[in-house]
């Protein structure tokens, strides 16, 4: 292990994260009653410019009045390049109860962006004598943000998670796609001809590098990596395939842009009972190994060692959090 200890952010369930436009208050109660882990009330891209002020009022009222149960509650503010952002922060923190858990910052480009929002949030929190520190969720969705992702991840003690905003990322990198998330038929590999001259074409995942890079930056700084939106809500299989790719790379959850995507994400990001059971057995076996002075033993015919303890502990901790949330 390095002498540098990676401090872990506040642990939270983040398997599913529902985007709810602040301009659609009729959707708030349904979101609060849903099975989602995190709700983010949006002031940014789902809200038209002439609705920004009303959306802000709706969100303030919803934070104060609606019973959000044990869900994590977040507000996506507007970008730092707009004139809406400062009032999003000031009004939302000044006028709401301490029920608000997180602020989501979109289109983060540099560590200084986080520093600026941290300064503003800190001033308002202090002035209002708030006791609970608001955390930050950061959307990595521009070429600049991805280039600076490591510095961004460590820019504030408030940081909790990095999110891959695939739609804006595609626009920023000028990727040749107009859909939100998922694979692209042009991103594939044509195999060399076989003995019978036949060739196969295998689709690849054009988002692999971006998500993997974000995961490394998040984990190196004790944050949760979360995969962003998948636009086609009529394709549950495509959604789950994308979610599984993100889970395999280390993401803890995925956005839902439609309520039907919530159970899909919860299923993918809940560790299967069989894996949890094996993880618990690994911990018992390694405990016995330690007592016998051994560093590695075999379990079900496979080698396990001290690294297996860390993998198993992470899995068990996540399963326990899910069980505690009911
Ligand atoms: C999310 O904000 C995205 O741009 O995909
Ligand atoms: Mg975006």
Set down the secondary structure blueprint.
Blueprint: E1 16-21, H1 28-33, E2 38-42, H2 52-65, E3 72-76, H3 85-95, E4 102-105, H4 111-127, E5 135-140, H5 143-147, H6 149-153, E6 159-164, H7 166-173, E7 188-190, E8 201-203, H8 208-219, E9 224-227, H9 236-249, E10 253-256, H10 261-269, H11 273-291, E11 297-299, E12 302-304, H12 306-325
Parallel strand pairs: 1-2, 1-10, 2-3, 3-4, 4-5, 5-6, 6-9, 9-10
Antiparallel strand pairs: 7-8, 11-12
The structure holds glyoxylic acid and magnesium ion.
Features:
43% helix, alpha/beta, binds glyoxylic acid, TIM Barrel, 12 helices, 8-stranded parallel barrel, two-stranded antiparallel ribbon, 2 domains
Explain this structure.
There is one protein chain. This protein has 326 residues and is α/β, with parallel strands linked by helices. Helix content is 43%, strand content 16%. The strands form three sheets. Strands 1-2-3-4-5-6-9-10 form an eight-stranded parallel barrel, surrounded by four helices. Strands 7-8 form a two-stranded antiparallel ribbon. Strands 11-12 form a two-stranded antiparallel sheet. The radius of gyration is 21 Å and the shape is globular. The mean pLDDT is 96. Residues 106, 139, 141, 165-168, 228-229 line the site of glyoxylic acid. The site of glyoxylic acid (GLV) has 9 residues, from helix 7.
